[in-house]
Amino acid sequence: MTVSIRTYSENLELVARRRQHIALCAARVFVKNGYERANVHEIAAACSMSIGTLYHYIGSKADILHLVIEHALARKLEAIEAISANSTAISPTEALKQAFELICRRIDENQDITIFIYQETKNLEASARQGCLDMEMRCVAAIEALLTRGYAAGDFSIRDVTAMAHNIMVTAEMWAFRRWSLRKRYTLEEYITEQIGLILRAIGVETDTAGSIQRTVDTAGQL
Amino acid sequence: MTVSIRTYSENLELVARRRQHIALCAARVFVKNGYERANVHEIAAACSMSIGTLYHYIGSKADILHLVIEHALARKLEAIEAISANSTAISPTEALKQAFELICRRIDENQDITIFIYQETKNLEASARQGCLDMEMRCVAAIEALLTRGYAAGDFSIRDVTAMAHNIMVTAEMWAFRRWSLRKRYTLEEYITEQIGLILRAIGVETDTAGSIQRTVDTAGQL
Amino acid sequence: MTVSIRTYSENLELVARRRQHIALCAARVFVKNGYERANVHEIAAACSMSIGTLYHYIGSKADILHLVIEHALARKLEAIEAISANSTAISPTEALKQAFELICRRIDENQDITIFIYQETKNLEASARQGCLDMEMRCVAAIEALLTRGYAAGDFSIRDVTAMAHNIMVTAEMWAFRRWSLRKRYTLEEYITEQIGLILRAIGVETDTAGSIQRTVDTAGQL
Amino acid sequence: MTVSIRTYSENLELVARRRQHIALCAARVFVKNGYERANVHEIAAACSMSIGTLYHYIGSKADILHLVIEHALARKLEAIEAISANSTAISPTEALKQAFELICRRIDENQDITIFIYQETKNLEASARQGCLDMEMRCVAAIEALLTRGYAAGDFSIRDVTAMAHNIMVTAEMWAFRRWSLRKRYTLEEYITEQIGLILRAIGVETDTAGSIQRTVDTAGQL
DNA sequence: CATGAATGAGGTTTCATTCAT
DNA sequence: TATGAATGAAACCTCATTCAT
Question: Which of B119, B126, B160 sits opposite A118 (nearest CB)?
């Protein structure tokens, strides 16, 4: 899973523990200033390590980025696969509704890192980036599974599930990367309700048209 | 419209011409390596100017970013408003279909800058960023107008047009920022066809279900 | 008087007029920011000239400094020589008192340029600097003349007038370059009175001891 | 006492040692060309440090100026306070004479930095400058103490000691900043003798009139 | 295993001066 | 005579990485 990153340590378990720590702490620094503006001094401080120690467990600043993004994506993938897997007991429609809601709530809790991944994945070198894209693909695949199940059950009228799965994933992430606009207009709950309505109708599930939205939250122009 | 940027010249017409030139040439450099990695030396060279001359027309590297993003957004906005305005002669459904197709084709032609804007708008200072977000909002508004017209005509069964308008905009831009996945599966035409189907059904327009997609183009993991 | 400075003009009268103008206007800019921080753009603007025109009448930024300092020193010298010359009708003691007072008042009116000369004469090249030092020497000489007259008349008990003349000149200029301290304690009038008392007693002239000073003006720590 | 300057090191003792080193070495570079013309490359070389290392102990070039001036003033203040304090065993007149002589000799040994402080203190930012002015004030206060003691003992006929204290301080510094004139006429010993005579008579102490000065040293027009 | 002082290349920006118009 | 656009060297400062302790 983890791509090979240089380390001076031979205690693999220690390396893994430290890297997890770095992934968590560095994320805060990266998210605050962006990858390029964050400096290794600040990252080391956030990890409560000296620079020297930090460099025992990573080979370069880019490796820290890799750790951070990979960690965040792995947790996102875990969450989505769990959501998808846990919904076999209920109807496909209900499963899709619940899945979308849970994914949206997860994105809402991880807005900053979601946006960060959109912005900084470009700084990964090819192989690391490919690993991350693979995880993104597996997120889509988990959603595709939900859709395929509904199609097989005759509940969803859709044959090409890929586009729809991407749409669902991006619709959830939009809540983060278009928050400067969406949050003025919707609460998270309203957003979820509205988008679920659109999704279900797109795949041919009849719904009682979602209620209109009036309340406007003013959250200025935060990005 | 244009936020004030420092200049040593008082010849407003010259300043405007040079800045347009900078916006175009610098975009190529920025897109290649990202904002932070691009250096002003390279930008000046791309503009066929000395660094000194470059700094006669801008006050800082961040101003160049502002110029580039604002220029790109202004052209996107222009295009979308034109598309929206030019479609009053045809039925709302046909208008929406054509609009979505044209927007997607425009995004396809401007993939790199589309992605760049997602990644680097964060580097603008507050006021510049707000100006850019305002233009994004006007893009959404132009799409809302199309939807509202179809709703008023009774053709679209949708009451809250905002979410749908965002979805349409993001679906088109997805073609750029998820190209690493979508291009393996769809040609631009297939993508447009598939997504139009989903959009129309989400707003209650009956369509003959779009055909399934089989062909897979392998374009490696380019971002 | 004026050391040769490059000019592209052959109209000597025009050159002289423009240079006088430059000396006056540039002084304001130099005094505000210091010589090195002042830029030629700002100087040209203060002179209501284009950069090109400015460089028709001077050869370099250092020439402007020369013009400014020479102009200020020439006026100081003029003033002091006039003061010294105009006092032949009164007693040496009265002449010295009046001269000191007038010089102090002149320094008070020209505090900024007085300090500026202390700070920036170092930036003149050797020959220009020498010319300026010569003018300073002539200021001292004018004061020496006053002292010598009093000595010859038997009113002043002093044989080496040079040190005393320097002291008098520097005491007056101190009002400018130590204003951050002196102005908290003395008004100009009090300062003059107090210092005249000290000067006269140093050269053996009996005075009714100047009154004590109580009032404290708070002018913060301005330099 | 020392104003806070940014450092990347947390080893306070090391920081203090390095800064002392910088203050000493940078002074030579500054004095040679003035603050603005000196460049950090040259300063780092004079400190036998890389530029990177230099910037670990200071935050900006202006901080180096601050270090240099503060260091020089602190040593001047120390010297003057020591001189003033050490003279309680002798008569006020003798104490004043010795103090003036020692201060003049100290200025003579530190001519360049004395002039430098006159010229470049303006480049300090407000708070740093205020700290330096405070030290100057304490120098004056130490001299005031000497005068006050003589007044209290009935030896000096002077009530306002402030002006006289400033005069004494400036008279000593004059030896540096008017050396282009004074050194042509006086040796240091002659200068001290002559000025002590003037000082003592100004405060009402009878002296056998100081001898005339003939020897003229030609030291060209050095500033 | 842990530290953090040292490095120096490379970044952005300024500005005195020239010269074609 | 007057203009001001163009130049590019050189300035200050940052920061990822190493390595002796």
Answer: B119
Strand, helix or coil for residue B140 = helix
Is the model's pTM score more than 0.70?
A: yes
Fold type of domain B12-202? Tetracycline Repressor; domain 2 (1.10.357)
- Measured over the CA atoms of residue D30, residue D33, residue D35 and residue D38, the dihedral's sign is negative
Contact at 8 Å (CB) between B67 and B123? no
Q: Phi, psi at residue C23, to the nearest 5°?
A: -55, -40
List pLDDT tens digits, range A146-184. Answer: 999 999 999 999 889 999 999 999 999 999 999 999 999
C-alpha to C-alpha distance for B126 and B54, rounded to whole angstroms: 24
Q: What is the DSSP letter of C122?
A: G
Closest partner residue to A160 among B164, B180, B212, by Cβ? B212
Instruction: Using a threshold of 3 CB pairs under 8 A, tell whether chains C and D touch.
Output: yes
CA nearest to A147, candidates A129, A165, A130, A169 = A165
Chains touching chain B, criterion 3+ CB pairs below 8 Å: A
- For C122, the closest chain D residue by CA position comes to D223
Unique residue bearing structure tokens 């991880």: A110
Nearest CA in chain C to D192: C163
Which chain C residue's Cα is nearest to D209? C158
Report the distance separating Cα D109 and Cα B65, nearest Å: 55
Report whether B56 contacts B8 (CB < 8 A): yes
Measured between beta carbons, the chain A residues lying within 8 angstroms of B174 are 166-167, 170
State whether the Cα torsion B9-B12-B14-B17 is positive or negative.
positive
The domain locations on chain B are 12-202
pLDDT per position as a tens digit, D26-67? 999 999 999 999 999 999 999 999 999 999 999 999 999 999
Distance A60 CA to F16 C1' (A): 8
Alpha-carbon torsion B193, B198, B202, B205, what sign?
A: positive
Amino acid at D221: G
Q: For the segment D141-176, what is each residue's pLDDT rounded down to a tens digit?
A: 999 999 999 999 999 999 899 999 999 999 999 999
Please answer yes or no on whether C37 and D34 come within 8 Å at the CB atom: no
Q: Containing H/E element for C70?
A: helix C61-85
Contact yes or no for C186 and D202 at CB 8 A: no
The DSSP code sequence of A156-216 is S--S-HHHHHHHHHHHHHHHHHTHHHHHHH--HHHHHHHHHHHHHHHTT-----PPP----
**Sign of the alpha-carbon torsion through C181, C185, C190, C194:** negative
Burial of B6 (0-12, 13-18, 19+ CB in 10 A): exposed
Residue pair D216/D182 in contact (Cβ under 8 Å)? The answer is no
Estimate in Å the CA A113 to C1' E3 gap, whole number: 31
* C140: nearest CB among D121, D181, D204: D181
